[in-house]
């Protein structure tokens, strides 16, 4: 299975990459984009408009994004980026920009972004979520300036941004030498790519014909490219042994890759693809890139049509201006996103507590499916372990108790669990199962909850009501 997935992933990467080939215009476009990719310091502006039709989403949505920022990728071990984001949905948008920063490979977002997410939640009629976030913003984030979203770590150790870009360029020009995509044209200013329902079939047929006739060199160059990229990459939890195992699996996926290409060639020869192309008639993807003075400009248009119905569209323009970008540090107090999530969970349990928890399982399952219904009707889903002893179902005390707002205490000396309600400690008798305290589902009745049990064929359903 892993080999099959690896080979399919390779085909996916190549198919996306092959929106540019290595014909005369393709090489010109690749050279153009290579020059752009090698710019490591620049400012940028982007405006994007997305339309989602009523036929697609049940009601029409118009979403507008504006990005304005700066980037410094001179040192990949200390990447820097800062940009402001503004957006609106159906003419209702945020009032102040959300600021995102990447400083020393750590990703931050300004605190006010939570206020803007609250605005979005209200626009999307998620009032309960808005109340929860407002509670945390007003009471727990008074002295906070930025939220730390994630730490990217030292991803690249011995490869510069330019080397990474050049490596991709070399891969395409070697693996697809002689292939002409025929979807790229040279314009008076730069280059244009256009993929429509009219030329998509020809493009796909030409691409897989090339892959069929050159599958050995394409596979070898792809494996070489992936090895080169990952050999210079450090990913948390992904050891050198993991890398070597992945490289071995890549090598061993050769026959799976060949088989997939052969099957794709037979499918294309059958003419069945024509039917699918007809279903997206009038759809198109167009991208134009050109240079004005020192500025690079990219314009993109996407229109999705399915069986004669326009499902949505996208129009985007990006302007990149090479210039020296000074890295700045984060100023002010920071809260980590994990702590913020804990604060949000606590606030939700207070404002919109769980009223009902339903657990479902089949014989032989290791875990039960958990559906929690809150006061305002919204539901959460989870998976939790259970065990059956002498025909009695045992469920995790801490998970269920804390979900209902109970304080659960554990006394290690006596191996006893308690529910703490003010000055009262209610002893709960249970068992330890995989380091979790489990109690019989009926014992929740002793704590004042209503318990219902239903057997529907092989499906068991236990419901706990507050």
From TrEMBL:
PROSITE patterns: PROKAR_LIPOPROTEIN. It holds the Pfam family Cu_amine_oxidN1. It comes from the Bacteria. Residues 379-429 form the Copper amine oxidase-like N-terminal domain. SUPFAM superfamilies: Copper amine oxidase, domain N. This is Copper amine oxidase-like N-terminal domain-containing protein. It comes from Sedimentibacter acidaminivorans.
């Amino acid at each position: 299975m892993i080999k099959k997935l690896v080979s399919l992933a390779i085909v996916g990467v190549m198919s996306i990459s092959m929106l540019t080939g290595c014909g005369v215009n393709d090489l010109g476009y690749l050279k153009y984009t290579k020059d752009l990719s090698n710019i490591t310091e620049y400012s940028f502006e982007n405006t994007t408009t997305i339309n989602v039709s009523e036929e697609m989403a049940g009601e029409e949505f118009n979403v507008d994004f504006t990005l304005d920022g700066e980037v410094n990728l001179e040192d990949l071990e200390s990447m820097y980026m800062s940009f402001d984001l503004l957006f609106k949905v159906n003419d209702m948008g945020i009032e102040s920009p959300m600021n995102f920063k990447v400083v020393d490979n750590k990703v931050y977002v300004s605190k006010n972004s939570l206020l803007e997410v609250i605005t979005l939640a209200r626009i999307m009629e998620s009032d309960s979520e808005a109340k929860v976030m407002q509670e945390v913003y007003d009471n727990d984030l008074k002295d906070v300036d930025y939220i730390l979203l994630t730490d990217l770590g030292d991803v690249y150790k011995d490869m510069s941004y330019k080397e990474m870009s050049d490596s991709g360029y070399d891969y395409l020009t070697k693996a697809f030498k002689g292939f002409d995509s025929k979807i790229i044209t040279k314009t008076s200013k730069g280059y244009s790519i256009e993929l429509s329902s009219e030329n998509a079939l020809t493009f796909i047929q030409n691409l897989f014909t090339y892959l069929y006739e050159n599958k050995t060199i394409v596979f070898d160059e792809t494996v070489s490219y992936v090895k080169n990229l990952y050999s210079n990459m450090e990913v948390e939890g992904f050891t050198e042994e993991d890398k070597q195992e992945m490289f071995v699996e890549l090598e061993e996926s050769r026959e799976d890759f060949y088989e997939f290409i052969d099957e794709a060639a037979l499918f294309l020869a059958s003419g069945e693809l024509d039917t699918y192309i007809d279903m997206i008639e009038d759809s198109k993807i167009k991208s134009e890139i050109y240079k004005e003075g020192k500025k690079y400009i990219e314009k993109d248009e996407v229109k999705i049509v399915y069986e004669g119905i326009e499902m949505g569209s996208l129009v985007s323009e990006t302007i990149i201006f090479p210039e020296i970008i000074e890295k700045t540090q984060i100023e002010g107090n920071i809260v980590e996103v994990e702590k913020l999530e804990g604060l949000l969970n606590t606030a939700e349990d207070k404002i919109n507590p769980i009223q009902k928890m339903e657990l479902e399982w089949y014989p032989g399952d290791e875990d039960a499916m958990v559906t929690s219904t809150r006061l305002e009707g919204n539901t959460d889903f989870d998976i939790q372990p259970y065990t059956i002893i002498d025909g009695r179902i045992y469920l995790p005390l801490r998970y269920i108790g804390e979900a209902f707002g109970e304080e659960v205490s554990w006394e290690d000396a006596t191996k006893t669990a308690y529910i703490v309600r003010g000055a009262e400690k209610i002893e709960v008798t249970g068992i330890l199962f995989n380091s979790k305290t489990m109690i019989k589902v009926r014992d929740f009745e002793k704590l004042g909850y209503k318990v219902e049990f239903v057997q529907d064929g092989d499906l068991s359903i236990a419901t706990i009501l507050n």
